[in-house]
Design a protein that fits this description.
single chain; 2 helices
Length: 77
């Protein structure tokens, strides 16, 4: 049994964050063609914030589904 409490490796979480940031950037660039007042720098900054937020959120929630039992189970009498 593994002693690590994480469920997913950090590389998988980072890959998910990068894919999400890329998808956000694609959507924002597509919207930029429709709304001319949306600068490219703002699109990049929003995509970076999205990627970082996914990375932090998934890293914080990367634990097992149930806690480990720290005490022995009592026998019913």
């Amino acid at each position: 049994m593994s002693t690590s409490t994480s469920v997913f490796p950090f590389a998988h979480i980072a890959l998910t964050a990068a894919i999400t940031a890329g998808a956000a950037l694609l959507v924002l660039v597509a919207l930029r063609a429709r709304f001319k007042m949306l600068p490219l720098v703002d699109c990049l900054l929003v995509a970076v914030v999205v990627g970082i937020s996914v990375l932090v959120w998934r890293s914080a929630g990367n634990t097992g589904a149930t806690p480990q039992r720290s005490h022995p189970r009592r026998e019913s009498q």
